[in-house]
């Protein structure tokens, strides 16, 4: 049985990571097409990608949108989770359901709804509208993680802080947030990862200042190239780095 378990895990890992391994391998292809046979090792596609001004600008736009939208989604999600976990309000179950509802809706539907709303309000499409869309999709995630992590231990500490004269903002800043450091970090890094990779909302809600997934899509329109593999490898490297940093700096410290 143990051997079957290890075999199952090995097959699962191969199924998940084989496409990534192929992507990374052919990003070092010396030829002009990322297809077999492998024609030799070369770093010229990474040099081309890192020297591409439009691509680097799109990379900066993605980082800006991911970080800013994730911070906003985290703050709003944490405050909403704290309020609904600590205060009994009429219809609180319905409120939680409404907050989590965007997680069950297609990104395409959300993007079209926001596009219609921004158009009716006369808001010009930009990175700010993309950021607003990413807040919409990441806020339910942040709320769910924070709400699930709030227990009686935090409640007792918050009550003690109030009894000692702390204002509500002091309770949130000095008691609630530090005690939920690991869940807050997990929510933030997951939001950054989802925003970093998101395409549909970024494509529909911007015009000229595009994010990295949109720039990659425009590259793919001209055909396959090891340069697109190099970009994908760099994106994968950033995502893995975020996950590893989260594990080493947050979860291990929490344990």
From TrEMBL:
CDD domains: TM_PBP2
Gene3D superfamilies in UniProt: MetI-like
Annotated ABC transmembrane type-1 domain residues: 59-246
GO cellular component term of the entry, any: plasma membrane
Keyword terms of this UniProt record: Cell membrane, Membrane, Transmembrane, Transmembrane helix, Transport
UniProt entry tagged with the keyword Membrane: yes
GO biological-process terms attached to the record: transmembrane transport
Stored InterPro entries: Bact_Polyamine_Transport, MetI-like, MetI-like_sf
Segments traversing the membrane: 7-28, 63-85, 97-121, 127-150, 171-196, 230-251
Protein origin, superkingdom: Bacteria
Localization per Swiss-Prot or TrEMBL: Cell membrane
Topology within the bilayer: Multi-pass membrane protein
PANTHER family (alphabetical): PUTRESCINE TRANSPORT SYSTEM PERMEASE PROTEIN POTI (PTHR43848:SF2)
Family statement drawn from the similarity comment of this UniProt entry: Belongs to the binding-protein-dependent transport system permease family. CysTW subfamily.
Protein name: ABC transporter permease
Organism: Paragemmobacter aquarius
């Amino acid at each position: 049985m143990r051997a079957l378990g290890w075999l199952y895990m090995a097959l699962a890992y191969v199924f998940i990571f084989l496409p990534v391994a192929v992507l990374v391998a052919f990003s070092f292809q010396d030829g002009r097409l990322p297809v077999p046979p492998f024609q030799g090792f070369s770093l010229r596609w990474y040099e081309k990608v890192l020297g591409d001004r439009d691509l680097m600008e799109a990379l900066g736009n993605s980082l800006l949108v991911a970080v800013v939208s994730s911070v906003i989604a985290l703050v709003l999600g944490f405050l909403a989770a704290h309020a609904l976990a600590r205060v009994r309000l009429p219809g609180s179950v319905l409120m939680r359901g409404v907050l989590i509802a965007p997680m069950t809706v297609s990104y395409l539907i959300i993007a079209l709804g926001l596009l219609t709303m921004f158009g009716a309000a006369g808001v010009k499409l930009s990175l700010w509208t993309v950021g607003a869309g990413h807040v919409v999709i990441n806020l339910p995630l942040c709320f769910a993680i924070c709400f699930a992590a709030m227990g009686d231990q935090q409640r007792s500490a918050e009550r003690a802080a109030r009894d000692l004269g702390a204002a509500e903002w002091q309770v949130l800043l000095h008691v609630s947030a530090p005690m939920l450091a690991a869940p807050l970090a997990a929510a933030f890094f997951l939001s950054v990862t989802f925003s970093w990779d998101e395409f549909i909302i970024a494509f529909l809600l911007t015009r000229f200042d595009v994010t990295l997934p949109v720039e990659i899509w425009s590259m793919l329109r001209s055909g396959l190239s090891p340069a697109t593999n190099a970009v994908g490898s760099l994106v994968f490297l950033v995502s893995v780095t975020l996950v590893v940093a989260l594990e080493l700096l947050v979860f291990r410290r929490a344990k």
